[in-house]
Design a protein that fits this description.
The protein is of the alpha/beta class and 293 residues long. Helices cover 45% and strands 13% of the residues. The chain has eleven helices and six strands. The chain has a six-stranded parallel sheet with strand order 2-1-3-4-5-6, with helices on both faces. The structure holds nicotinamide-adenine-dinucleotide (NAD). The site of nicotinamide-adenine-dinucleotide has 27 residues, from helix 1 and strand 4. The site of nicotinamide-adenine-dinucleotide (NAD) has 27 residues, from helix 1 and strand 4.
């Protein structure tokens, strides 16, 4: 159902690659809510993804830009204001990529050249976008910027690798710039910490299916879907959330506040039915030793 929450608002949406992308869903919802926007992605994504379909559906032009390249961003911001006929009211940063994750290089052996790339693409790009927009005074008063993040910024998740460091920096950039932009123009900047979601970026994480299943079982409301994330982002772009800024907002069905669930206890007990109690490690015959190894 649409509520005209973004009627008359103009924005830029970064990161829609295909119909699984969180940014894709946000674009669809923003369109339904009456927003006008430009879609952008790295030039290589133009070949890999299916952005033209989204562009037609949302009547949105595409401007390719590598979010780590200041010249590309300069052009993107200028051109977007020209196309949309004015300054911007919202920006979605939905960008993430780690060459270390892609190549299966583990955290204790990170390749530093790749590590720099991870941080540049997944975190510094937010700084570059905000800085470029500020130099051009491209954001209207009370504009809203949302960047997507993951709970691995606060807690360790095996396999998330250097993306955890990138997300911690991303969240900090949102706070630091949130102060500057808030003070100057009442512009709000938040990060949305989303549940594991089956997308191109998500499925690159080692053991993703198990992580997704674990989070779903641990969360009292279950994992949040990409469509639900889009709903949430739309409220953050709307005027209904004008005083929310510099926050990391968990959109994860409650996962980030859980410690132990009843279901997890039951599962834990089951998995030990075949095992001796802790400390009960005396007289096994050979067969048992093999069984409990
Ligand atoms: N999928 C999940 O489980 C999950 C959970 C929490 C947060 N997130 C975050 O959500 C965001 C969107 O990811 P997604 O899951 O929709 O996957 P996705 O693969 O659909 O989106 C990632 C996007 O980043 C773009 N990108 C990569 N390098 C770029 C560059 N140099 N310049 C511009 N764009 C570039 C890709 O082309 C792609 O469109 C990411 O920040 C991701 O970390 C995802």
């Amino acid at each position: 159902m649409a509520y005209n929450l973004l009627k008359g608002k103009k924005g830029i949406i970064f990161g829609a690659l295909n119909d699984k992308s969180i940014a894709w869903k946000v674009a669809e919802r923003a369109h339904e809510e009456g927003a006008q926007f430009v879609l952008t992605n790295a030039p290589i994504a133009m070949r890999m993804g299916s952005m033209n379909e989204l562009s037609e559906k949302c009547n949105a032009e595409i401007i390719p830009a590598d979010a780590t390249n200041l010249e590309d961003l300069d052009h993107l911001v200028e051109k977007s204001m020209e196309i949309l006929g004015g300054k911007l009211d919202f920006v979605l940063h939905s960008i993430g990529m780690s060459p270390n994750v892609r190549k299966g290089i583990e955290y204790d052996e990170l390749k530093y050249e790749y590590y720099h790339k991870t941080l540049d693409v997944s975190a510094f790009s937010l700084h570059k976008i905000l800085s470029t927009a500020r130099k051009k005074d491209a954001l209207n008063d009370w504009a809203s910027v949302v960047a997507l993040t993951y709970v691995a910024a606060q807690r360790t998740f095996v396999g998330y690798n250097d993306m955890a460091d990138a997300k911690a920096i991303l969240e900090s950039i949102a706070r630091s710039f949130g102060y500057i932009y808030g003070r100057e123009k009442k512009i709000r900047i938040n990060t949305v910490s989303q549940s594991p979601t089956l997308t191109t970026a998500g499925s690159g994480i080692a053991g993703f299916d198990k992580l997704e299943d674990f989070a779903d079982r641990m969360s009292p409301l279950g994992n949040a879907t990409a469509d639900e994330c889009a709903d949430y982002c739309v409220t953050l772009f709307s005027d209904l959330t004008k005083k929310v800024t510099m926050q990391n907002l968990f959109h994860d069905g409650g996962f980030s506040s859980m410690g132990m669930s009843l279901r997890a206890i039951q599962q834990y007990e089951k998995s030990f039915e075949d095992c001796p109690p802790v400390g009960d490690d005396i007289p096994f015959d050979e067969k048992d030793v093999e069984r409990f190894r």
